[in-house]
TrEMBL record:
The lineage of its organism: Eukaryota, Metazoa, Ecdysozoa, Arthropoda, Hexapoda. It comes from Anopheles christyi. Residues 84-96 have a biased composition (Basic and acidic residues). This is Probable ATP-dependent RNA helicase DDX52. Residues 366-527 form the Helicase C-terminal domain. GO terms for molecular function: ATP binding; hydrolase activity; RNA binding; RNA helicase activity. Keywords: ATP-binding, Helicase, Hydrolase, Nucleotide-binding, RNA-binding. GO terms for biological process: maturation of SSU-rRNA.
């Protein structure tokens, strides 16, 4: 077929007499055998083209080939009238097409399509993990248009989506069709990869319009900030659909916190933290009715499963018992996964589909990551000031390990004349809301925060994350630095460390390396720390010296001591510093920087 096709192209415009009408294949062979200089050129061309055609066939899928053939046969029909050869050519093509159709039954075509979709899954690093009880995994979607053609999603919703986003992200490609088919799901996808829209779009589609039967969807988030952000996204995607998305503001005011059966039930979607919902359920009679819930989404699932005083596992049991609709769909999303969550999900949602995008618990490759040894606490402050002096590009998020330290750093930086604020759980809700708004609007350039803000919060265009205090775990690291490098944008993350931060240093260095970053070899060769040490550091942050500028006088004293130490070391005398490690580290920091 290829030779015929080529021949037709090369011979375009030439006239053939009847006696030249040999079968095309034979004619080409004859031409090759007795080639004149002119025909040599033709043959050479023919070979070039032949090569190209062959190459394109190799790279295309069988389905694409069939489509190609159909297009070619249509094209050639216009040329056919020009010569008899072309007519016979076209006949032959039609025969071959019919033959192909015979060779490829509809199932085979379907199979080819599946192969193509699987190739796309690999390309987007979508890894589906099959389990015994999970249903058939729906095909991925490649564009948002498919939502209306394949799933009957309303044009209103599709146009809302397309006014926000042009194409689905990998997690959306796979999660949206799964949830549109109302299958339960457990998905793990990198920070900033669009998980929120992945669950909101199917929920908005299924709920369609407001109804007076109370909450039909429940989204559980670890913090109120994240709940409000999810509500905002729901309002944006559900514009003009009139669905009512509610965040519980208060549980103390009886008038404002009655969501019981008798309360009018003018709500559709509830976004909340587990504590609030459990509190309302624990009232007698319960102040919230969840009997009509068809969708339960657990966002940041592994955070909610972290052991705390009010273990979320118990809370979740309470919540799921209250959502007693047997046909509800349960979806769990997170950027990181822990064994605990996997075990819980396997036991409680056995029929879920499980998939992940890219490396599980990996850092986003778009973030340029750096580990910076500062020697001591005062070294950190110097390093931060140095970064400011060199020019910071706001907005910048700075993570510290406690509220006290947030306040200490704030006090230092505000006197440097920086446009800085803090957010932590001791601030009132109004203060927290104002700070988040100020940061979003660019009024605050540097936001100092605790672990509270490490999960889920989507500040547009954060340029830099500074881990002023070393994160308590690799998972915390992934989430903290995931506040930058979101939705395909690049970002930077700098993590300060001192000699007190060795427990997770190796694993974080490995993580940076696997995301394509550079780390010194010695970090990768460190001994791995024990599980006990890792658990301890998660439970209790290391004790650190107060964040404060060391007055010049004190600094001189420290330097004198340092000189004394180095002299006495030279004389092999016991070091003063070895008896006072914090001072030793302070001086080390000064020298380093
Ligand atoms: N299809 C898309 N195309 C472009 N941007 C998108 C798309 N979907 C979502 N986004 C944007 O990507 C950003 C991150 O989305 P989102 O907050 O849902 O991420 P996430 O995966 O939940 O992150 P995290 O794990 O940190 O919670 C948001 O600003 C969102 O508007």
């Amino acid at each position: 077929m290829i030779a015929n096709d080529l021949f037709r192209k090369l011979s375009c415009g030439a006239k053939f007499s009847n006696k030249n009408r040999l079968p095309v294949k034979r004619k080409l062979e004859n031409d090759n055998a007795a080639c004149l200089p002119k025909s040599k050129v033709c043959i050479k061309k023919e070979k070039d083209t032949d090569y190209k055609v062959n190459a394109s066939i190799v790279t295309k899928s069988p389905v694409a080939d069939i489509e190609d053939m159909q297009i070619k046969s249509e094209d050639s029909s216009s040329e056919d009238s020009e010569s008899d050869v072309n007519k016979s050519d076209s006949n032959q093509e039609r025969k071959q097409l019919a033959q192909q159709k015979k060779i490829l039954p509809p199932e085979k075509i379907e199979l080819n399509n599946l192969l193509r979709l699987n190739r796309l899954r690999n390309q987007h690093k979508i890894h589906v993990k099959k389990s015994r009880h999970s249903p058939k995994v729906p095909n991925i979607i490649e564009s948002f248009d498919q939502l209306s053609t394949d799933y009957g999603v309303s044009s209103r919703l599709v146009s809302n989506i397309m006014s926000c986003y042009s194409a689905p992200t990998p997690v959306q490609m796979q999660a949206i069709p799964i949830l549109l088919k109302t299958h339960s799901l457990h998905a793990c996808a990198p920070t900033g990869s669009g998980k929120t829209a992945a669950f909101l779009i199917p929920i908005l589609h299924h709920l369609k319009k407001p109804m007076k039967c109370g909450f039909r969807a429940l989204i559980v988030c670890p913090t109120r900030e994240l709940a409000k952000q999810t509500q905002r996204e729901a309002l944006r995607l559900g514009e003009e659909m009139n669905l009512r998305t509610h965040v519980i503001q208060t549980v103390d005011d009886p008038k404002k916190s009655d969501y019981s059966f008798a309360s009018g039930r003018n709500y559709d979607i509830l976004v909340t933290t587990p504590n609030r919902i459990c509190y309302l359920l624990s009232q007698s009679p319960p102040k919230i009715d969840l009997t009509n819930i068809q969708w339960v989404v657990i966002d940041e699932a592994d955070k909610l499963f972290e052991d705390s005083k009010n273990s979320f596992r118990d809370q979740l049991d309470t919540v799921l018992n209250a959502c007693n609709n047997p046909s509800k769909t349960i979806a769990l999303f997170s950027a990181t996964q822990t064994r605990d969550v996997n075990l819980w999900v396997a036991k409680n949602v056995p029929n879920r589909i499980r998939f992940s995008i890219g490396l599980i618990n990996g850092a986003v490759e778009l973030v340029e990551q750096k580990l910076l040894f500062t020697g001591s606490e005062s070294g950190k402050l110097l390093a931060f000031r140095e970064m400011v002096a060199q020019g910071l590009h706001p907005p910048v998020l700075v993570f510290v390990q406690s509220k006290d330290r947030a306040q200490q750093l704030f006090t230092e930086l505000i006197y440097d004349g920086l446009n800085v604020d803090i957010i932590h759980s001791d601030r009132t809700q109004r203060e927290r809301d104002n700070v988040v708004r100020g940061f979003r609007e660019g009024k605050i350039w540097i936001l100092i925060c605790t672990e509270l803000m490490s999960r889920g919060i989507d500040f547009k265009g954060v340029n830099l994350v500074v881990n002023y205090d070393f994160p308590p775990s690799t998972i915390s690291y992934v989430h903290r630095i995931g506040r930058t490098g979101r939705a395909g944008r690049p970002g930077k993350a700098v993590t300060f460390f001192t000699k007190d931060d060795t427990v997770n240093l190796k694993s974080i260095a490995q993580l940076i390396k696997s995301a394509g970053g550079e780390v010194p070899d010695y970090m990768l060769q460190l001994h791995g720390s024990s599980k006990k040490a890792r658990d301890n550091i998660k439970q209790k942050a290391p004790k650190r010296a107060t964040i404060r500028t060391i007055p010049t006088f004190e600094l001189q004293q420290l330097q004198r001591k340092k000189r004394f130490v180095s002299k006495s070391k030279g004389k092999n005398k016991p070091s003063m510093v070895s008896r006072n490690s914090s001072k030793k580290s302070a001086s080390a920091g000064q020298s380093k920087l």
